[in-house]
Amino acid sequence: MTDALTFSPDVVLLDIEGTISSQSYVVDVMYPYVRDHLPGYLAARRGDPVIERILADAAALAGPGADPVEAMLGWLAEDKKAPPLKKAQGLIWEAGYAEGAFRGHIYEDAHAALVRWRAAGVPLFIFSSGSVQAQVQFFENNAAGDLRGLFSGHFDTDIGAKVETESYRRIAAAIGVAPDRLLFFSDNPRELVAATAAGLPVVHVLREDVASDPRFPEIRSFEEVTLRTAPAAE
């Protein structure tokens, strides 16, 4: 059991998988859907400028002679955060949501905290390796309902990798908040190291089998966090 934590941020930045949503749900349900549908989805849409750009970017990233579709399937198996894969993933998940194949998942304690913080006037932002499109779909088609209204904005790896310090500086600048007023929650210590180096206060979220790390304040539930902050202007 961790001790209760109190912070006074102006803005909150959150990871998705393993932080406010179950990583195992994404890995066991949503990733296999992409794996099973990616080749056919892309083949059926050849000539579409968006698909052609994804394939061209994947081919460039994979290297000379590589098949872009096979490369993306390999990246998916490795959980590599490759931008072309993430863009294709978002499109395929959109189709899956439309078919009712799955719904986004959010932990009850996280949902309750986000609703409470948003009602108190705290702007909430997401930073995920999934594309902004995929993030919006995830919250729109969520088992807890349409959650899009909770968030003031979204960032993906177009702004930089999640393990790079400069990404967090760019996010703070884009939001218009000092880094030390931007509180970041993640289950990934490498992301927390990068955010800390950028000046952000951080919280390590211990979900599923994530191990404790003495470098960071930690929680097992968002019920263990209290925010004391005046509403920030948006």
UniProtKB/TrEMBL annotation:
What pathway does this protein act in? Answer: Amino-acid biosynthesis; L-methionine biosynthesis via salvage pathway; L-methionine from S-methyl-5-thio-alpha-D-ribose 1-phosphate: step 3/6; Amino-acid biosynthesis; L-methionine biosynthesis via salvage pathway; L-methionine from S-methyl-5-thio-alpha-D-ribose 1-phosphate: step 4/6
Q: Which Pfam families match?
A: Hydrolase
Identify the keywords attached in UniProt to this record, alphabetized: Amino-acid biosynthesis, Hydrolase, Magnesium, Metal-binding, Methionine biosynthesis
SUPFAM superfamilies of this UniProt entry?
Answer: HAD-like
- Which cofactor does the UniProt annotation name? Mg(2+)
**A single MF term (Gene Ontology):** 2,3-diketo-5-methylthiopentyl-1-phosphate enolase activity
User: Is Hydrolase there in the keyword field?
Assistant: yes
Q: How is the cofactor bound?
A: Binds 1 Mg(2+) ion per subunit.
Q: Which reaction does it catalyse?
A: 5-methylsulfanyl-2,3-dioxopentyl phosphate + H2O = 1,2-dihydroxy-5-(methylsulfanyl)pent-1-en-3-one + phosphate
Q: What is its EC number?
A: 3.1.3.77
Name the top EC class: hydrolase
Q: Name one GO biological process term.
A: L-methionine salvage from methylthioadenosine
Describe the protein's quaternary organization and the partners it interacts with: Monomer.
Family to which this protein belongs? Belongs to the HAD-like hydrolase superfamily. MasA/MtnC family.
Any idea what job this protein has?
Bifunctional enzyme that catalyzes the enolization of 2,3-diketo-5-methylthiopentyl-1-phosphate (DK-MTP-1-P) into the intermediate 2-hydroxy-3-keto-5-methylthiopentenyl-1-phosphate (HK-MTPenyl-1-P), which is then dephosphorylated to form the acireductone 1,2-dihydroxy-3-keto-5-methylthiopentene (DHK-MTPene).
Q: What is this protein called?
A: Enolase-phosphatase E1
What gene, per UniProt, encodes this protein? mtnC
